[in-house]
Amino acid sequence: MNKEYELIIIGGGAGAFAAANTANKLKKKTLLVNYEKILPLGGTCVNVGCVPSKIMLHQGEEYYNAVRSKFRAIKLQGRSDFIEALKETHEMVKNFRNKNYEKVIEKQEYVDFKEGLASFVDSHTVKVDNKTFKGKHFLIAAGAYTFVPPIKGIDKIDFITNVNIFNLKKKPKSVIIIGGGPLGMEFSQIFHHFGVKVTVLQRSERVIPKFDSMLGEELRKHLQEEGITIYTNADSKEVKKTKNGIELTVEIDGKRKVLTAEKLMLATGLQANTKLLETEKSGVNLDEKGFVKVNEFMQTSQKHIYAAGDVTGLMPLETTAAKQGNFAVFNMFENANKKINYNEVPHAVFTSPEVAAVGITEEEFMRKYNVCLCRTMTLDHVEKALAIKDTRGLIRMVLDPKTKIVIGVHIIGPMAADIITTATYAIKNKMTIYDIKDTVHVFPTLSEMIKKVAQSFDQSLDEMACCVE
Ligand SMILES: Cc1cc2nc3c(=O)[nH]c(=O)nc-3n(C[C@H](O)[C@H](O)[C@H](O)COP(=O)(O)OP(=O)(O)OC[C@H]3O[C@@H](n4cnc5c(N)ncnc54)[C@H](O)[C@@H]3O)c2cc1C
Question: How confident is the model at residue 469 (pLDDT cuts 50, 70, 90)?
Answer without folding.
Answer: low
